[in-house]
Every structure is written in C-alpha cells, then in structure tokens.
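Re: the 289-residue chain
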Amino acid sequence: MNRLVTIFVAGFIALMLLSSTVFVVDQRRFAIVFALGEVREVIAEPGLHFKLPPPFQNVIYLDKRILTLDTPDADRFITAEKKNILVDAFVKWRIVEPRLYYVSFSGDERAARNRMSQIVKAALNDEITKRTVREVISGERGRVMEAVRDKVVAEAKQIGVGIVDVRLKRVDYIDQINDSVYDRMRAERVRVANELRSTGAAESEKIRADADRQRTVILAEAFREAEKIKGEGDAKASAIYSDAFGKNPEFYKFYRSLEAYRASFKDQGDVMVIDTNSEFFKYFKNPGK
C-alpha cells in the first residue's frame, strides 16, 4: 500500500514538473523566456514549446496584435499665431521588438501607452506651433499627420514599437476662440448684407431715376404732341372761321360782339364804366342794323 502511494506521489510530481516545462504560444502573442531574470529567448512563432521548470526559467506573454491608443480628452496646443486649439488624435501601434519593448517597460502596457501618448503629444506640438489655425484645420492637415507620423515612428522604434497609422480625429477651437470666430463670421455676414443692401438701394435709385427721366421725356413728348395737335386744330378752326365769316363780314362783327357781351355780362355783380357812345355798344343802339 505504501509503495502504491509512493508511486502515485512520484507520478504526480513528475506530471507537475512536465507541465511546468511545456508552454503554448498562439498566433496573437509573443513569448519571452527568462532564465534567472535574464531574457533567454523571444518566441514569435505559434506552437508548443519547452523550457526548464521554475525558478530556472519563466515565460511572459506580450500582445502581437495591432493596438489602438485613443486619448479620452483632446489636448490643447498653441498655433503659430498664438491661438489655442484642441486636437484629438489616435494611434495604431504594435510591438515589433519584444525584447526592447520589455526592457523599456517591463512588459507593462499601461506604461507603454503613457510613453506613446507623450511621444504623440510632443510631435503634434512641434508641428502645430509651426502652422496657423487655418493650415492645421484644413489647409495642411494631411501634411501635419504625415510629419507627426514620421516623428512618432522614429521615437517609437527606440522602444520596440511599430506605428501603423496616426490620425487626427478632431481639430477644434477652444470655446473663447469659437465665440470670436462666430462673432467674426457674424460681422462678415452683416458686412456682406449691408453691401448688398447698399447695392440694392443704389440700383433702386438708379432705376427710379431712369423711370422718372423716362416719365418726364414721355410727358414732354406727349405735351409737345398735344400742343402741336392743338395748334393744328386752332389753325384749322381759324381757317374755317375766316373762310366762313369772310363771306359776311358784318355778321362776323355782330357775332363777335355777342361773344364779347356774353363774356362781359356773365356775372350780375360786374360793373363796367364805358362811354355809351363807344363802339362797344354799337349793336345796342341800332339793333335793327
């Protein structure tokens, strides 16, 4: 019985020792084998591998996949014209030198992310301080990303990290600049509106003046035409009168005298001081003639 227990215990110990010498590396991770605290081997290929049991050798794993560094809050930067803007960026990165990466951060991904954030912020600061707000937001945004990527790639290489991509998610003004920009935009729109109103008023006055000129010309031409027609009518009437009354001059004189009497005695209150022997009363004295 004791012999059976001894065999069982020995088998269990042997199984434990065997399991401690076998480890599996999948395609998503790197494996670093340590021998008494020193890096002995870096394994990148997936599969079944062997090592000495602890404490002689130990294994830690590092993520081989593409990781994302995405800052939760936008950082503030100063442009070439000394204006503050908010820039929010993200970085796609991966471990390319596991040994160097481990030496730099002892395998702590949080420390690696903090260091990457510092590198990206420094690169953004170098590029944004050289450019104006307009260039950063629209004019040279692509160039800014390329320059930042180049700087981040060079810095990250020294800590065993490879940069896949760097992108600017958002570039915006701070609240104070937003207010000033909106005020400037509003003032510009007001200026344009005033210019349009002034142009419209000038065009209105021009059209009104042209209409008044045309009205004056039309009225003058109409008056001239009316006077011409009236003159022609008066001439024809005079010719008719002259022809008609020329046939009987005495009747013409009598008719004209009647017209003069009608005009002179139109109102009962009119008073005339005239010699009764004057020519004016000739037909009153001799109505028979």
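The first helix runs from residue 2 to 20.
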